[in-house]
Amino acid sequence: MDKVFASIDEAVKDIPDGASIAIGGFFTAGTPVELIQALARQGAKNLTIICQQMGPGNEDVTKLVEQGQVKKAIVNYPFYRSASRGANSPFEIAVRAGKIEVEVFPMGTFIEKMRAAGAGIAGFYTPTGVGTVVERGKEKKVFNGRPYLLEIALKPDYAFIHAWKGDRFGNCMYRKTAQNYNPEMGKAARITIAQVEKVVEAGELDPDKVHMPGVYVQRVVEVGRRTYKPGID
Amino acid sequence: MVVKPNKKKFEGVARELIALRIANDLQDGSYVNLGIGIPTLVSNWIEGRDIVLQAEIGMLNTGPLAEGDNIDQDCINASCQPVTELPGCCYFSDCESFAMIRGGYMDVAVLGALQVSEKGDLAGWNNPDRGFPEHVGNIGGSMDLATGAKKVIAAMEHVTTKGDYKIVKKCTYPVTAVGVVKLIVTDLAVLEVTDKGLVLKEVAPGLTAEDVQSVTEPKLIISPDLKEMAL
Known about the structure:
The complex is a heterodimer. Chain A has helices at residues 8-12, 33-42, 60-66, 83-87, 90-96, 107-118, 182-188; strands at residues 20-23, 47-50, 70-75, 101-104, 123-126, 140-143, 146-152, 158-166, 172-173, 191-199, 219-222. Chain A is of the alpha/beta class. In chain A, the strands form 2 sheets. In chain A, strands 1, 2, 3, 4, 8, 9, 10 and 11 form an 8-stranded mixed β-sheet that branches. A 3-stranded antiparallel β-sheet of chain A has the order 5-7-6. The longest helix of chain A is centred in the middle third of the chain and has 12 residues, at 107-118. Chain A is globular and about 50 Å long. Chain A starts with 7 loop residues before the first helix and ends in an 11-residue tail after the last strand. By secondary structure, chain B is α/β, with parallel strands linked by helices. Chain B has a 10-stranded mixed β-sheet. Chain B has a 3-stranded mixed β-sheet with strand order 7-6-9, with no helix packed on it. At the A-B interface, helix 6 and helix 7 of A face helix 3 and helix 4 of B.
């Protein structure tokens, strides 16, 4: 078994128009920048992008917005914190103009929806969002005297994830807080593409320290270690 | 929609001292999550104490901000600031992080607020002035934290920059969670949320209970032990 692709463009080549794509990364940490850039070159349209934010600390998704590739965004922290900074961002402008549909979930719900999808669970009841606008249109049920909302699993067509090291079986290790959303997104998607800083020989990863069992990963591509400055704005 | 202002402007304590007052309230041996803004400053006052900070991105025993050679691009907090590890640190996924939060393992969440109601409703995730539909905004981890933590402390300025009430009878901004705030610490006062209403426990140096009441919409219950803010 060998899931390694020689080029990143080859790894994203088959993504069709209308696909839903989960993109890992929490602001600047663990964001699969090279895959996002490859998607911009590839040009698929009418995409549903599932990621934490559409701009802050993730400037590369802006290119997808500017090129009109994004139809919908499923997010938990979509906008710049600063209203003035956000007012000029292509994503905010597109949302205000009604060109991109936005669905926002609380962070814990957002990622649990993908955990559920990856684990074969149709949905779950969470106390988060009760009494807020988040509960609109959702079933509410009381357990042990406390109200909960039904949230439905979210299964993306593709996931772009970033890992530190990976092997040809798709086994991956993350590094520090660059782990964040990557594991659950990678487990949820039908096709998970892992960009890894280094592809190592099978057997080189300590089996006790593999974070991501290879069964969840369909494609692996080596991108090297990019250095960047953490921060937003 | 905004309730109209009070003319008087009071000199309160600095944001760092709001953070210090909150740090004084934290118990040793507790797990604490600090939100964005004033709450982040609390970390400056707990160095060396037996308190474990959780970063919602997926880290326990988060240390002070990293500088210079200590910066590791793969080690940030929820505000995207590079942070250091303390001994006993561990990393995990964001999903696991929120399992801890919803699961009730956070003793305290310190959160910023746009408004807090007298019933402890918290509004902090969506400022309608930005002009998005009511259900669209930066929720981030705030709703899970406000819902899941055993105790929620609101850290905030007492009034808006325009002098409007932020401590209100009923939130006019979209709420983060209902009836969750237990303690409100502002530049002017410390207030406890009780079944009977807001109890004014402490006032900033030089202020009276009447001063604080004049910039607070709901009627305050004055604690019999009212004192100067414990800094």
